[in-house]
Amino acid sequence: MKKIIFIAKEFFYLIKRYKAAFLIPILIVLLLLTFLVYYIGPAVITSFIYAGF
């Protein structure tokens, strides 16, 4: 867990330092997708992959 917190701190530091605010919406979308995959379960995602979607 400490590694994840460290990576998040470094990521936000880099965004702040290099004025890369365009990465924040991308990060939010990725976090939402990760939460949905965890909440729904991987079985639904694998069925889409096998169906060729």
A few lines on this structure:
The chain has three helices and no strands. By secondary structure, it is mainly α.
Q: Which properties best describe this structure?
A:
mainly alpha, 53 residues
Describe the structure in your own words:
With 53 residues, the chain is mainly alpha-helical. The protein has a domain at 21-53. Helices cover 85% and strands 0% of the residues. It contains three helices and no strands. It has helices spanning 2-18, 23-40, 42-51. The longest helix has 18 residues, at 23-40. The radius of gyration is 15 Å and the shape is elongated. The mean pLDDT is 80.
Element layout with pairings:
Elements lengths: L1 H17 L4 H18 L1 H10 L2
| Computed CA radius of gyration, to the nearest angstrom | 15 Å
Order of helices and strands: HHH
Low-confidence stretches: none
Number of strands: 0
